[in-house]
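Hey,
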Amino acid sequence: MLKNRIDSVDAFRAIAIFFIILVHTHPFLGNDGNATALEQNIGLLIRQLTSFSVPFFFIISGYFFGRRLKSQNDIAPLYISITKRLLIAFSFWSIIYVLPFDIGAFYTHGITGPFKKCYWHIHSLLTSPWMVIFEGTRGHLWFLSALGFAISIFAFLVYIGKAFIALPLGLLLYTLGVLSSAYAGSPLSTGLDFNPRNGPFWSLVFFSIGWRLSFLTPNHSWFMYGFLTLTAGATVQYSELYFLERVFGIKTTSTYLFGTLAIGTGVAMLALSNIRFPSVRSLASIGPYTLGIYGCHNMFVDILEPMKNYVTYQLWEIIYPIIVLATSYFFVRLLHAIPRLRKVLT
């Protein structure tokens, strides 16, 4: 399972999963009123620095899907194999997040707190059961669902011989998503009221970019090209943020803008360049477990959150995401010892 991997890709997987944890621990962006104006700006900067993480995972998924498709040249068994694993992981973690695991609820709701939160959660799910298709039982599981949508659309286009449509279709969906989220409230907004992370609006374009990259042969020069692409994307994205705030007064926390397309692509090229630097091997050892870390980390976000009452605000905002990553990693390594669970962990 863990052999024949690309160390640089696994190293970037480890970095990306930490930045996803930053999204869900939102350092210096809490609503408790403790952050100064400077700290809030730092929080917004950190939020934007995370913009590469999920697009990177979509692109890498598309890249390796494309490589496997070229090697076996039969879309049906490949599609069934990958979507089966996605469905198993999505279902497993959806079940976990319905269970009364949130021991942090003891602090706020007494000894029956976890069971109360479990009941409230189930009640909330029953009020909009169709959302379970897009987000499972916890919001971050949208990634697995969105990836499934992207793979399904792409596999269908391959099956009918129209794979070339995937990228322009993805760009169209992405444009609608960006204009409906980051640009909402501006004259450029589509006026559509929906969450574009659900379904293929974010995923298809990045997956298709990864598929396109799979036709090329990575080499060390990709590091330079990736860096230039990343730099161009960051320039565009931060220009968009400046434009939205200065012209329309919109201070968006959305990490999906038009520049994000190049940011995600640039980071994927950096990863695929197979660069060698001292910390690659140590980071790469975490990379194979990122699916499991992604699945379980919000458990520890909830469990550890009450500890903030015993630590100074600034220190907690720094160490919280690090502790979540560490506990999630060791938890996944423990679960990995159970062979039947490995498909939802790696």
